[in-house]
Amino acid sequence: MTVRAVEGGAGCGKTFRLMEMLTETLVAHPLMEGQRVLALTFMHGARRRLADRLRAVPGLLGRVECCTVDSFAWRIYRRWRGLAAALGIPAQSEGEFDAVCDAAGMLLEHAQVRSWTAASFPIVLVDEGQDLRPQRLRMLVALSTATRTLIAADEFQCLDQTLRPNPLVAWMQGATEPETLVQVRRTNMGGPSRGRDGDPRRRGTGQWSGVPSLAAGRKRPACRDIARQRHRVAPGRQRCGDHSRLAGWICSECCRPCRPRPVRAARERPIFDSLGGNGSR
Questions:
Q1: Which has fewest Cβ within 10 Å: 45, 166, 194, 243?
Q2: What is the mean pLDDT of the chain?
Q3: CA angle, residues 191, 193, 199, in degrees to nearest 5
Q4: Confidence grade of residue 164 (pLDDT, cut at 50, 70, 90)
Q5: In what side-by-side order are the strands of the sheet with 179-181?
Q6: Please, are residues 34 and 118 in contact by the beta-carbon 8 Å criterion?
Q7: How far is residue 201's CA from residue 207's CA, in Å, rounded to a whole number?
């Protein structure tokens, strides 16, 4: 079977190109009755984003299974638990992610399990593949021998520092000649990337782009992410109630001085009698 791959930096359109590859594969090799596309990724957030992208692929509605690699590994192990015991694979529990993936990889290396999986999922798509550890990569290598496999990865975006050099990227470059994307296509304009007042800003930086600062003369936070910024309050002072109108900048006075709240005179309440009167005499 075939392996096609795409690599490139963040914002270069790897997932977009992956959807194009999927469309091309579906045109050349249409799914048969009962067959579906298997879409895998490592993190649940990436799985949700991938599922949204897959909904836009023509003719794929209801014919795709999008899940994490760990979830798919548990399904394989649970389905072929008897064969795993016969092959001498130790019993695993669902929470032992690496061990379950390694056991699923051993099962997928078995011809019977591999052909059974390929009969249901002839096309396997993997996004953000750089985060796959060797146990999960073992599953993908076994699947690639019986399916048409499409992979998108970028070693620089790997979340696990122990995966340097990246095993999936090394295997991918040996199995096929990846397409390399170099042009950044991500834009900062429009939709969710616009600020509170409609002004464009760079997402995730907490800095305004192309507009005058709304907090001229104010200190900028040391942390670039407004959602995570923390600032100290000097002794004898208290936090300002809301910095949101100033785009999250910290006031230069290290917040306002503590002021004693004025004591309000207690109002004399009317006395209600037991009959429900208004207390007037």
A1: 45
A2: 78
A3: 90
A4: confident
A5: 64-68, 37-41, 123-126, 148-153, 3-8, 179-181
A6: no
A7: 6
Report the distance separating Cα 250 and Cα 28, nearest Å.
58
Token couple for 258:
């503590």
Predicted confidence (pLDDT) at residue 80 exceeds the cutoff of 70: yes
What is the length of the chain?
281
Q: Which of 21-35, 190-204, 246-260 bottoms out in mean pLDDT, i.e. has the lowest?
A: 190-204
In whole angstroms, give the CA distance from residue 224 to residue 171: 36
- Distance, in Å, from the CA atom of 115 to the CA atom of 108, rounded to the nearest integer, reads 9
48-61 pLDDT per residue, tens: 999 999 999 998 98
Question: Which pLDDT score, from 0 to 100, does residue 264 have?
Answer: 60
CA distance 60 to 27: 11
**Residues in Cβ contact with 227 at an 8 Å cutoff, skipping those fewer than 6 apart:** 206
Q: What is the predicted pLDDT for the residue at 208?
A: 35
Lowest mean pLDDT across 74-88, 141-155, 206-220? 206-220
Beta strands in the chain (DSSP E): 3-8, 37-41, 64-68, 123-126, 148-153, 179-181
CA 16 to chain centre: 16
Give the CA diameter of the chain.
98
In the DSSP assignment, the letter for residue 17 is: H
